[in-house]
Amino acid sequence: MSQDIRSAGELRAKVGLTKNEIVHLWNGGVLSLKVEGRGVEADLELRCSEVQPERGTRILVKRVSAE
User: Fold this and answer.
1) pTM for the complete prediction?
2) Interior CA angle at 9 toward 44 and 25, to 5°?
3) pLDDT tens string for the chain (67 positions)?
4) b/e per residue, 9-32, with b = 16+ CB within 10 A?
5) Which are the contacts of 10, defined by CB distance < 8 A and separation ≥ 6?
6) Is 61 left (phi over 0), alpha (psi -120 to 50) or beta?
7) Residue (of 40, 26, 33) closest to 1 by Cα position
8) How far apart are CA 29 and CA 21, in angstroms?
């Protein structure tokens, strides 16, 4: 992952997903992406729009730090 912090409140990141993370999303799971930069953080929740949410959805957490 590479990041470019442009201002105090802006965080730009490129995130590469593994095959297992993509399969997790495709099978109805949720990927909670935590991006941490210098003095700024972002929390994203990714899910596949083609899969209906179900009760008891599995959540996978991925943390990424600024370089």
Assistant:
1) 0.70
2) 10
3) 555 545 556 777 888 999 999 999 998 899 999 988 888 888 999 988 887 766 667 888 988 876 6
4) eebebeeeeeeebeebbeebbbbe
5) 40
6) beta
7) 33
8) 9
